[in-house]
Specification:
With 550 residues, the chain is α/β, with parallel strands linked by helices. The strands form 4 sheets. Strands 1, 2, 3, 4, 5, 21, 22 and 23 form an 8-stranded mixed beta sheet that branches. It is globular, with a radius of gyration of 23 Å.
Length: 550
């Protein structure tokens, strides 16, 4: 059956990320798919159809693929933002950053004054104390905001929270509470910092309020809206939704319908959510989930979280561990469990993505892969190490030998590079962090990510970080790890699609693929690299439908 006559969109230039025809000046689309790319007159002569000049002055690339993000990026905006950097909400509201503890506390006080119900908790997000000369936000700070209502402030890393004394009193958190992740003062009393998920779970009332707010139907809509405004057509929710629950799956099915402005791959975290699946049970749970996939909503991949956050001092890192202290972080999944989960999923043909911020966590996952792949060699498994913040050249060579992929958290160079050099790991290791060039030189399939809401959803900023490696203070951190704009664009399109096993559908602009396109105001291949993050985004095309940004 012949395809319907196409609509042909001329553009200023088109970068296809397809080796057979890397560039073009027009694209022909019919039935939501790409019929051909080429020159406008040639396409009309070959296929007929009509020309639409809407994108004539724009630069087209494959829609960006954000292969590590979280839908809670759309839900956190139900709560108060107190982060260090300026940020823009899904409704376009500009939120100035809070650049001191005084500004954080003042914003909290203003929000607290607006709450009518004296029993209503105050929940905020985005805090990052590492910017404040190493000073720690503790319960006594938050007590100055209110001594009568519970206060819960989620840190930017999502691996820590700070709470006030009222919350600890009402939730029974005290000197006798025996749990890892509760820093204490000299008298043995918790100071109000909750490190990692088990400790945060003690704040029952506020955590329930937060989880309801960040996972409602509007959160999913906001998530897609922010993605469209950033040129992203394929998103991930990497293990932050407890999709073992039928109600959560139903929420995703309601949210990601025919008119949703992006595709979403929702990952299953067998050790997350209210019901923890065993290594024996988890593959069957995932197999059932995979049957619920649609063109826009995908289930079928797995996320394992091995360690914590480097800037939160909870990631597992090799000797000499944290700079100046010699201390190390936390295992979020017991090391002896990792191999069992990996074995079950690998033998079931499931792709596993492992959160490994620290290089010691990378060692653990590589050792497990050595064992499991030795038992059951896998073809095209595409298991992926996420974050790869301190991954070494030797580890990248092992990854290549095992057929693993890397998804690098390049945004850390800007947002925390200065602090990594001076506080967390020291200048030498900081210069080697997020080593995209080393990964490519080792032949490891590469993508890069923003980990929204840890940093804002936006692929152009991720590219800017990898290409320039500039910190917030303007220092170049590890110049030898810079990559080219072309390499960054490949990582953010076909690289991400490959790791999601969607590269035969999206990630490049080629005949037969889905017509998912990022529409930009300038050319990331030719612009001064320092201007990459400032390129305007007109919007996207999804399944051939134009999706202008707000």
């Amino acid at each position: 059956m012949q395809p319907a006559l196409p609509i042909i969109y001329p553009a200023k230039t088109i970068h296809t990320m397809d080796r057979s025809q890397p560039s073009a000046s027009a694209i022909a689309i019919t039935g939501g798919r790409i019929l051909a790319v080429g020159e406008p007159d040639d396409l009309v002569a070959a296929y007929g159809g009509t020309i639409d000049s809407t994108l004539t002055e724009k630069v087209l690339l494959p829609g960006f693929v954000e292969a590590h993000s979280h839908a809670i990026e759309g839900g956190f905006w139900n709560f108060l933002y107190v982060g260090y950097f300026d940020r823009t909400g899904p409704d376009g509201t500009h939120w100035p950053g809070c650049t001191s503890f005084d500004q954080v506390l003042e914003r909290l006080r203003k929000a607290e004054a607006k709450l009518d119900d004296p029993s209503e908790p105050l929940v905020a997000w985005g805090l990052d104390p590492i910017y404040f000369d190493g000073e720690r936000l503790v319960a006594s700070h938050l007590d100055s905001v209110s001594e009568t209502r519970q206060i819960f402030v989620m840190h930017a890393s999502l691996h820590l929270a700070t709470v006030n004394s009222r919350l600890m009193e009402e939730e029974g958190i005290g000197p006798d509470t025996q749990l890892e992740g509760l820093p204490r003062d000299g008298a043995g009393t918790p100071i109000g910092e909750l490190q990692e998920f088990a400790a945060m779970g003690l704040a029952h009332t506020c955590l329930r309020k937060l989880m309801v707010g960040i996972t409602d139907d509007q959160a999913i809509q906001n998530f897609g809206r922010i993605a469209r405004n950033a040129g992203i057509t394929t998103l991930t929710d990497l293990g932050s939704s407890p999709i073992g629950s039928e109600s959560v799956v139903a929420r995703w099915q309601r949210g990601v319908g025919d008119d949703y402005p992006a595709r979403v791959s929702v990952f299953y975290n067998p050790a997350g959510g209210p019901e923890v699946a065993t290594p024996n049970d988890a593959p069957a749970v995932l197999a059932d989930l995979a049957t619920k996939s649609t063109d826009k909503l995908r289930f079928g991949h797995v996320k394992l979280i091995l360690d914590g956050s480097i800037q939160g001092f909870t990631a597992r890192i090799r000797w000499p561990h944290y700079h100046g202290t010699g201390e190390n972080g936390l295992w979020l999944l017991a090391p002896e469990q990792v191999e069992g989960y990996l074995r079950g999923f690998h033998q079931a043909g499931v792709t596993v993505h492992a959160h490994c911020n620290g290089d010691e966590a990378v060692d653990l996952f590589l050792d497990c892969c050595d064992t499991v792949l030795g038992e059951t060699p896998g073809r095209d498994h595409r298991h992926t190490i996420q974050h790869c913040q301190l991954t070494t050249p030797g580890q990248y060579r092992r990854m290549r030998a095992l057929g693993l992929c890397a998804n690098v958290f390049s945004n850390h160079i800007f947002y925390w590079g200065d602090q990594h050099a001076s506080i967390t790991v020291g200048p030498d290791r900081a210069a080697r962090m997020n080593a995209a060039a080393t990964a490519l030189n080792a032949g490891v399939p590469l993508s890069m990510h923003c980990d929204a809401p840890v940093t804002p959803l936006g692929s152009l900023h991720v590219a800017w970080c990898a290409v320039n490696r500039l910190t917030a203070s303007g220092q170049v951190l590890g110049p030898n790890e810079r990559i080219s704009a072309a390499e960054a664009m490949a990582a953010l399109t076909i690289g991400g699609a490959y790791q999601l096993k969607m590269d035969d559908e999206v990630g490049s602009l080629a005949p037969g693929k889905r017509a998912d396109i990022a529409v930009l105001d300038d050319d990331p291949f030719t612009i001064d690299p320092t201007g990459l993050r400032d390129i305007g985004v007109w919007g996207t095309v999804l399944d051939g439908v134009l999706q202008p940004a707000d």
